[in-house]
């Protein structure tokens, strides 16, 4: 496997692992603050990010590279409120999108078209994730800290089809 591509893929593995931990921390905070819908969303989102990481690990190893399982830092324990949580989520996803774009760029520079093809799945996934985070944030801005509104937001999220899909496994 091309070394620059391998390095960029391993960098992405670290980002997906960190994302998974970050959303797990948000899930735990939400659970401890009576926000069951948000907790459900974040637990599933955390699983989804782990699936993104596993898919990359498998790809690197199957292509003759060496996937590096990264150490990840301790995420935050407390968050100010729901709007902060979803603002941080969107910011984080924008950074992940930048990283995916960099990966696409490296693939093109190195003329690694099969990895480029593989990475397109992540390009589409990022579009969806950013759009979803923006939609939640728009709703929370409308609610503007109103407690009843936040209760309804969380309850809607608990019953929503907007929950991330539960990934079925690393080869799905
Ligand atoms: Fe896998 Fe949300 O980035």
Brief summary of the model shown:
With 172 residues, this protein is mostly helical.
Task: Give an overview in words.
The chain has 172 residues and is mainly α. The protein has one domain (3-159): Ferritin, core subunit, four-helix bundle (Ferritin), CATH 1.20.1260.10. The chain contains five helices and no strands. The protein has helices spanning 3-32, 36-62, 82-109, 113-143, 147-159. Helix 1 runs antiparallel to helix 3 (82-109), helix 2 packs across helix 5 and helix 3 (82-109) runs antiparallel to helix 4 (113-143). It is elongated and about 55 Å long. Bound molecules: MU-OXO-diiron (FEO).
Radius of gyration: 17 Å
What name does CATH use for the topology?
A: Ferritin
How do the helices and strands follow one another from N- to C-terminus? HHHHH
- Portion in beta strands: under 5%
Count helical runs.
5
Number of domains: 1
What hetero molecules are bound to the protein chains?
MU-OXO-diiron
CATH class: Mainly Alpha
Helix content: over 70%
Question: End-to-end distance, in Å?
Answer: 23 Å
| Sheet of most strands | none
Mean pLDDT: 93
């Amino acid at each position: 496997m091309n070394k620059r591509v391998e390095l960029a893929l391993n960098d992405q593995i670290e980002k997906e692992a960190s994302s998974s931990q970050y959303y797990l921390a948000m899930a735990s905070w939400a659970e401890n603050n009576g926000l069951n819908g948000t907790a459900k969303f974040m637990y599933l989102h955390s699983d989804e990010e782990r699936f993104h990481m596993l898919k990359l690990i498998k790809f690197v190893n199957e292509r003759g590279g060496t996937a590096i399982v990264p150490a990840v830092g301790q995420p935050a324990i407390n968050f100010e409120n729901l709007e902060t949580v979803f603002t941080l989520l969107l910011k984080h996803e924008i950074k992940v999108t930048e990283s995916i774009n960099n990966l696409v760029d490296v693939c093109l520079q190195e003329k690694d078209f099969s990895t480029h093809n593989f990475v397109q799945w992540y390009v589409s996934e990022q579009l969806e994730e950013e759009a979803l985070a923006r939609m939640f944030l728009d709703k929370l801005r409308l609610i503007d800290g109103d407690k009843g509104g936040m209760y309804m937001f969380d309850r809607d999220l608990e019953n929503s089809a907007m929950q991330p899909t539960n990934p079925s496994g690393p080869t799905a």
